[in-house]
Structures are given as C-alpha cells and as structure tokens.
C-alpha cells in the first residue's frame, strides 16, 4: 500500500474510531462503572474484532451480503435490538463501590463479537474497503486495512475509557452516576437513529 494511501487510511480510521458511537459509549460507561483496568479486555476485543471484521468484509463477506441482502438485514435488526438492550442495562445500572463486585464489563470475546452486530462498524468496514482497497493487490491491501483499523482503534477506545474512569472521581454522588449512565444510554440509542430511521423508509 502506497504511503499516501496508508496515511489517508490512518486518518480515516482515527476519525471513525475516535468519534462517538456504540463502542465508545460502552467503554466510557464501563470505565466509569468498572474502572480502566477491568475494561481492557473489552477494549482489546473491540480493536481486534473490528480489524478482523474489516479484513473479512474485504475478503468476500461483503459479496455474500450483496448476494443475500436478507442476511445483512437480519444482522442489522439483531444488532439494533442488542444495542437497545445494552442501553437499557446501562441506564438501569448504578455505581460499583470500591471492592464491590456487581456485574462485569464485557469480555474480550464479547467485545470482538459485538462488532458483527454494531451498525457503525459495518458502515466503516464497507467504507474503508471500498475507499482504500487496492485492486492490483487486493488481499494484501485489505489485510493492511484490518491491521490499521485494529491498531488505531486501541488508543481511541482507551481515551474514551479514560474519560469514563476520570469521571469516577468527579461523579462521587450515586445520583450523579445514575444520571451519567442514563445519558450514556440515551447517547447509545441516539447513535442508532440513522439505522432505526432506515428501517421505516
């Protein structure tokens, strides 16, 4: 992959992975409720799962969805329903006191598998492969896209988790944490609005 294309891809990945979306809302809430260290498996699951997903979309899965659009539609419905359930769970959660174990952040595998039902992840993956895939060496360029996406996603989700963790010291009142979780839940639902609206077109 030429250096200028690689740089453009890295900037694209930074913008896409760094802007608000389901992954970032979830790790921010997880950082507040469980702390940075306990959210690390979730963060790594997002990064590696998303990079793998981008590569697989480029290596042929996108063609399967083009041929059988019903599969993609079902995935979108399941993904949206799952995200709405997660939003409800976040909205109903409260703070975890020091030393208390109540619930758990998503695991590495859950974070990785979540990418397959994350509408924003699908949009980014298809966009990245379409824009930055190199026809003359497509398999290698698609693998590079997956690698760049994974590498760039790590610091992005770490920053969002750090935001949530930092808020633990500020939001010391139980009611403040409850309201923060509710706001995060609403933002998670808001990030789904384009997908939900598309169902009714």
Structure notes:
The chain is mainly alpha-helical and 201 residues long. The chain has one domain. The protein contains nine helices and no strands. It has helices at residues 3-18, 22-34, 36-67, 69-92, 108-114, 119-132, 138-170, 174-191, 193-199. Helix 4 (69-92) packs antiparallel against helix 8. The N and C termini lie far apart (39 Å). The relative contact order is 0.23.
Which residues form runs of ≥5 with pLDDT under 50?
none
Radius of gyration: 17 Å
Distance between the termini: 39 Å
Topology, number of strands? 0
Biggest β-sheet strands, sense, barrel = none
Number of helical segments with 4 or more residues? 9
How helix-rich are the residues, as a percent range? over 70%
The 3D shape can be described as globular
Mean pLDDT metric: 80
- Share in β-strands: under 5%
Give me the secondary-structure category.
Answer: mainly alpha
The ordered H/E elements are HHHHHHHHH
Q: Give the total of domains.
A: 1
